[in-house]
Amino acid sequence: MLYAQRRIGISRAAALLRRAAAAVFVASTVVALAQESENRVVVQAEAGELPSAYGAPPDLSHGRISTLTKSYVLSPFSFELETGYEGAFFRDGAPLHLFRQEIEMGLPGRFTIGVQNQFAHVTGDTRESSFTIEGRYALANWNKLPLNPAVSAEYRFGGHAETDSGEIALLVSQDFPHLVEWAMNVFVDHGFGHRGSTSAGFTQSIEVPVLLPEEKLEVGFETLFRSGGEFPQLGRTAKGLAIGPTLAWRPSQRARFDLSPLFGCSDHTPALQMFAVFSFSFGRTTEAEAKNPSSARSR
Fold this sequence. Notes:
Blueprint: H1 2-47, E1 78-89, E2 96-107, E3 111-122, E4 125-138, E5 150-158, E6 165-176, E7 180-191, E8 198-209, E9 217-226, E10 230-231, E11 236-237, E12 240-249, E13 255-264, E14 272-283, H2 287-290
Antiparallel strand pairs: 1-2, 1-14, 2-3, 3-4, 4-5, 5-6, 6-7, 7-8, 8-9, 9-12, 10-11, 12-13, 13-14
């Protein structure tokens, strides 16, 4: 009798353990499925943002951070279409207006290639100024090296009154807490004409969003310095320091407008240089890019 009661108790305990194990299994399965569904929704929502190049914030992986300063590279098989304006207004004499169109394409292996065409308008005359081909390469994925260095090289075929020239540049960029973004380009330019002059300089930009969470409006500060060079359309020198504010407005996820009025700090620079760029991004967003959304940045 006692043996039978023990068997019944053991059987009941075993049944309770089986039920408890089944309940734990079902609960863990439900939690896992819910977590997977939540992650899927988050990834799909964040994948709708602009593509990220190798883990870089979207604003730093779309050709440029501002009108003058480029940053990092494009994501593979994404494209950037740009149309830009540069106006140089001097303390005396006629102003110079430059209009350019540019397209860039991201390639695997952290490469970006692009072409640019530029027209000049001065004293009522408009003509082609230059045609440029460019290549850019990032040395490592984002945040694998300090300041995320990239190198670029471009060759400009001179148009009317211009000679061919080449430029090499080091591009560094970084994002900081509170969505602060910074980039600098250090460049060396060499002309291949009869003068064969060489000059160097840098551009630098820092920006912070003021309309969150979409970051539709960003404001900042931009600097341009040249050790030499000239505006060949006017025969004027173009050396010295120019500084001023910069503004970026994104009317949609893939469209962006940048504006930078820079003020000359010497007699060799224009009194005012106005830069404006409208850009449009398109191309595919990969799963790997979706894993590095801009919302994952330090705030």
